[in-house]
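Technical annex, item 7. During the second reporting period the consortium partners agreed on a shared format for inverse folding records so that results from different sites could be compared directly. Each record opens with the tokenized structure and is followed by the designed sequence. A conforming record, contributed by the partner at site C, is shown below for reference.
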């Protein structure tokens, strides 16, 4: 109601893992990972409390649907990765985390899709001839593939 009257946006904040580092009965927080995510700013308009509650409820429904989709995709990923080599999967996950979520990039026009350095033609040909070849860019370390 205050945000609506002052015409200021409300920024939703989500804290994941906070319950594991700061329980409501503890006096001090314990070290541990906490993920903070900010949602898009909401502009609540009007003086009617019911209408404002509906606006917030609609936002919460949207985030709940997104959470459900994330859970489904996470389960699907677990099924798909179960048959992969553990070392390869660890390498991929480390790269993805270190490279802003992009661990595998295409070679286009003889250049790495991640750092844009030139990839030697013989290297590109080897990837084209054998798509199962695992190769990393010398510049950024991302895994490379040549699109068909």
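Designed sequence (site C submission):
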């Amino acid at each position: 109601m205050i945000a609506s009257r002052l015409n200021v946006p409300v920024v939703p904040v989500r804290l994941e893992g906070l319950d594991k580092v700061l329980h409501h009965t503890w006096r001090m927080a314990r070290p541990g990972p906490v993920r903070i995510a900010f949602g898009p700013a909401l502009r609540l308009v009007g003086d009617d409390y019911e209408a404002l509650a509906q606006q917030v409820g609609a936002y919460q429904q949207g985030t709940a649907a997104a959470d459900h989709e994330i859970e489904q995709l996470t389960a699907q990923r677990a099924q798909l990765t179960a048959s992969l080599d553990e070392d390869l999967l660890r390498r991929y996950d480390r790269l993805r985390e270190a490279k802003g979520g992009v661990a595998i990039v295409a070679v286009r026009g003889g250049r790495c899709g991640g750092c844009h350095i030139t990839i030697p033609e013989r290297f590109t040909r080897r990837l084209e001839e054998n798509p199962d070849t695992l190769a990393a860019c010398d510049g950024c370390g991302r895994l490379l593939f040549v699109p068909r």
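DSSP finds five helices and five strands in the chain. The two ends are 55 Å apart (CA to CA). All partners now use this format for quarterly exchanges.
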